[in-house]
Design a protein that fits this description.
The protein is of the alpha+beta class and 357 residues long. Helices cover 61% and strands 18% of the residues. It has a 6-stranded antiparallel beta sheet, with no helix packed on it.
Length: 357
């Protein structure tokens, strides 16, 4: 690695981390100004507020990570072009491909950081951030969704009309054990309650019907205790939970919810694939940024930054559009999160080809 490589990598990473630090400070100030009244009214301890913002920073920086890679590339490369440093580099016999190498090294390093953070670090921070918001900022959910059907195991299905979290009671509960097309057992209860200490369900006014193909039996109980592999919180669809699960946990969650017959899993698949696609967007945008800003043009850095902001906005719009199609119109989530990368990848190849002609 030559002095040129070290110079570019040092300036690139320095510009990026400075920009991300400024973003984090501004985001924290804005978020604090929006929530300060609730912090005061609910007498939130200072230590918990500081811990909240320490977890808020990874969330907001990960959200805009590739775009700030792009802005940093545009800003630093444009300054090099304005000072005629790029002209000097190319005039010395260095090819554009060779000059691009340190940018790719720095971009690849940031891509790797983003990849690890998206899959493990950011979800862990989001778990604490969301817990804080649920405790102090959001209204507590009083009851579950209505008329909930869940598949708990391959042959076990449950239904509950609704569950009141305040009273810890659910109403009109049914559990059916079905082997093939044959119903082996059906448990019906007027009310149910969950014992979180012993992790068992208490059923009241219970009717149990069993059928072994030859004989059918019917029993009634005033109350009954049963173990079922779900909790009251599983009865409400909380899409925000996807942000608080590491990728291995998210895979397990998707598999469990798929078994239970949940239909709205597109949000979770989009989140799963986005964690890998987003870091590579930073690498693609790095190539685009170098190709755009490496030429000295009238208007200087201002024109380059304006063009960078337009391209960033276009990327965000493309990502939001494809995600909406994935969650609302049945577009494959894997394809949805990679379409913007494909489009901008083609743009990167085109701009690179123009530079090396």
């Amino acid at each position: 690695m030559k002095k040129l490589d070290l110079y570019i990598i040092k300036k690139f990473l320095g510009t990026f981390f400075y920009a991300i630090m400024i973003l984090a400070i501004i985001a924290c100030v804005i978020d604090y100004s929006e929530k300060v009244e609730e912090f005061v009214s609910k007498q939130v301890p200072t230590g918990e507020i500081l811990n909240y913002f320490s977890n808020f920073i990874p969330h907001i920086t990960a959200l805009l990570f590739p775009l700030f890679i792009f802005i940093a590339t545009i800003f630093f490369t444009s300054k090099m072009a304005y000072k005629s440093e790029i002209i000097a580099i190319l005039a010395s016999g260095t090819s554009f491909q060779r000059m691009l190498r340190p940018f790719l090294i720095a971009g690849g390093f940031l891509c790797l950081i983003s990849l690890l953070a998206n899959h493990y670090v950011v979800p862990a921070a989001n778990k604490e951030r969301i817990a804080f918001e649920n405790k102090y900022l959001h209204y507590a959910v009083q009851s579950s969704d209505k008329n909930v059907h869940l598949r708990l195991r391959e042959n076990l299905y449950i239904f509950i009309q609704n569950y009141d979290y305040t009273s810890n009671y659910g109403y009109r509960f049914t559990a059916e054990t079905i082997e093939g097309t044959h119903m082996v057992e059906k448990i019906m209860a007027d009310r149910v309650s969950y014992d979180s200490v012993n992790k068992i369900w208490k059923l009241y006014s219970v009717k149990v019907r069993t059928n072994d193909s030859l004989e059918e039996t019917f029993e009634q109980f005033s109350d009954l205790e049963k173990e079922f592999p779900f909790t009251p919180r599983d009865l409400s669809e909380d899409e925000a939970i996807k942000d608080a699960l590491t990728t291995p946990e998210l895979n397990k969650y998707i598999a469990r919810e798929k078994l239970r017959g949940r239909e709205t899993l597109s949000f979770f698949y989009v989140e799963k694939y986005r964690r890998t696609a987003q870091p590579f967007a930073g690498l693609i945008l790095t190539i685009i940024g170098v190709c755009i800003a490496s030429r000295k043009v009238r208007g200087g850095s201002g024109l380059h930054l304006a063009l960078g902001i337009v391209i960033s906005a276009t990327y965000i719009m493309a990502m939001q559009l494809t995600n909406t199609f994935a969650t609302k119109s049945g577009l494959d989530p894997l394809l949805a999160v990679w379409i913007p990368n494909m489009i901008f990848g083609v743009l990167a190849v085109y701009l690179f080809a123009r530079q090396v002609r």
